[in-house]
Automatic annotation (TrEMBL):
This is Catechol 2,3-dioxygenase. PANTHER family: CATECHOL-2,3-DIOXYGENASE. Residues 47-163, 207-321 form the VOC domain. It holds the Pfam family Glyoxalase. One of its GO terms (molecular function) is dioxygenase activity. PROSITE patterns: TAT (PS51318), VOC (PS51819). It comes from Bradyrhizobium lablabi. Keywords: Dioxygenase, Oxidoreductase, Signal.
């Protein structure tokens, strides 16, 4: 497979005729946002740890994340699967065969963003996915990162991406510059062999760089995730808000593009069960707990931390690492 054939394959798998159209599709999927990076993102005082999802068909979904993303199956039973990379737990799947499918207009998961350690890793994965005829939903250059979008077999959104060096990010008055431009596929593919895949498993440094949520109201979401959880705003536009820890471009995205006015989530439906934010310092965790308690948030104790429930029923675990 040469580069030209790979380009045609990528376009066909994305269902578009040009990479400009693919960037437009990514804009619809991401709302002019950005991605995340493992090295910098994982050194911040808070960072994303795990995502846990309720799925109807456990085996096909677990196989998808193993075969397409290259995650390692660390534990598996008839009712659950745990997958990760480099011995680090990243994704848990819970089987709920009779669950209703969560509506895209409900609050919940917009996408899970898997962060490649390097740009070359992203290129290697892209060739692997294309050779295996994985359907894509968009490609984009977000200026701080380069991203590819797709869905798992039950419609859960996925972003796979690599960060540019943080020294290249542009900040002004606490706001980071991000866009949804056309991804330079030719330049990306110069980093790897396009004739065959050498991507058997995900690199050890793969992490979840950020989680993007559907919420019912941006101001209410910011009050919870900024005001009580303590993430810092980095960008707000077009019905979306982005927050981070430690001057990262964002660990958390939130939007109301399809879910404005959404009410409480149905915990019996498919989709996001909970995600975790890893907290480095005990005093930070204690301050979070106190703010959440004063705000009247629903709280529960979990191993090494606590679980809080946002205004729409999405559960976030704050855990000491």
């Amino acid at each position: 497979m040469n580069i030209d054939l790979t380009r045609r394959t990528l376009l066909r798998l994305a269902g578009v005729s040009s990479f400009a159209a693919a960037a437009a599709a990514a804009a619809r999927a991401e709302g002019n946002a950005a991605g995340g990076g493992p090295t910098f993102a994982s050194r911040t005082p808070m960072r994303v740890g795990m995502v846990t999802m309720r799925v109807r068909q456990l085996d096909p979904i677990a196989d998808f994340y193993r075969d397409v993303l290259g995650l390692t199956v660390m534990e598996r039973s008839g009712t659950a699967a745990l997958l990760g990379s480099g011995g680090v737990k990243l994704l848990a799947l819970e089987a709920h065969p009779d669950a209703a499918t969560e509506s895209r207009s409900a609050a919940g998961l917009f996408h899970t963003a898997f962060l490649m350690p390097t740009r070359k890793d992203l290129a290697r994965w892209l060739v692997h996915a294309a050779i295996n005829r994985v359907p894509f939903s968009g490609f984009a250059d977000h200026r701080v990162s380069e991203s590819v979008y797709l869905d798992d077999p039950e419609g859960n959104g996925i972003e796979v991406y690599a960060d540019r060096d943080p020294s290249l990010w542009q900040w002004s008055a606490g706001t980071v510059t991000m866009a949804t431009d056309q991804l330079n596929i030719d330049d990306l593919l110069t980093l790897t062999d396009t004739r065959a895949s050498d991507f058997a498993t995900a690199p050890d440094g793969l992490r979840i760089g950020h989680v993007h949520l559907r919420v019912g109201d941006i101001a209410q979401a910011e009050n919870f995730y900024h005001g009580t959880v303590g993430l810092d705003p980095t960008r707000r536009r077009n019905g979306a808000s982005f927050l981070s820890s430690g001057h990262y471009h964002h660990h958390l995205g939130m939007n109301v593009w399809q879910s404005a006015g959404a009410g409480r989530r149905d915990e019996r439906a498919t989709g996001l069960a909970w995600f975790s934010l890893e907290v480095e310092k005990q005093d930070l965790l204690a301050a979070q707990q106190e703010r959440l308690r004063k705000a009247g948030a629903q709280l529960a104790t979990v191993e090494n931390g606590l679980e809080a429930v946002d205004p729409w029923g999405t559960r976030v675990r704050l855990v000491k690492v």
